[in-house]
Amino acid sequence: MGRKEGLNPIVDPVLLRPGASPHPFESLAALKIARRRGMECPAMVGVNNVYEMVDADTTGTIPILTLASAESGASAILVSEESAKSRGATAEARIASYMVSYTLATGSPPKDLGFALLESKEKAPGYRPPSGCNALKLLPRRWGDFRV
To answer: Any residues with CB less than 8 A from the CB of 40 and at least 6 apart, and which?
Structure first.
């Protein structure tokens, strides 16, 4: 089945959890390459495998994944609310899609739009690092040389 029968296929590059191979952003890079080589069918990217397996707020991970997916050539993203941590992910993805659409249409950063996905931090002075930052000193050195 396919275009001959009047059907339009949708490509769904699966973004695996962080630490898996291929890595999530390798899948997005492959989508971008496929787009450059002429792939024209819509592509839907499932981002839930990533944000469900990272101990970080979805209000930060979903906008980044949405932007990376759109820049790679995705037509849509798939989100789900599988756990308590991801409650509200659908609404966050909708806001993120507005932010990304604005960025792609104007070439401007998705900033100062009148809506945002900021929760735990504000733009005002007075930022304090999360309490877990002190625990970073205890991480084993065997985890590699990645530095910030």
So the answer is: none
**CA nearest to 16, candidates 7, 25, 4, 8:** 25
With bands split at pLDDT 50, 70 and 90, how would you rate the model's confidence at 71? very high
pTM: 0.74
Query: How far is residue 51's CA from residue 79's CA, in Å, rounded to a whole number?
Result: 9
Q: Which amino acid, residue 114? A: G
Predicted confidence (pLDDT) per residue in 5-56, tens digit: 676 767 666 666 667 666 788 888 888 998 899 988 888 898 988 888 888 8
Omega within 30 of 0 (cis) for the link into 22: yes
Phi-psi region of 70 (alpha: psi -120 to 50; beta: other; left: phi over 0): alpha
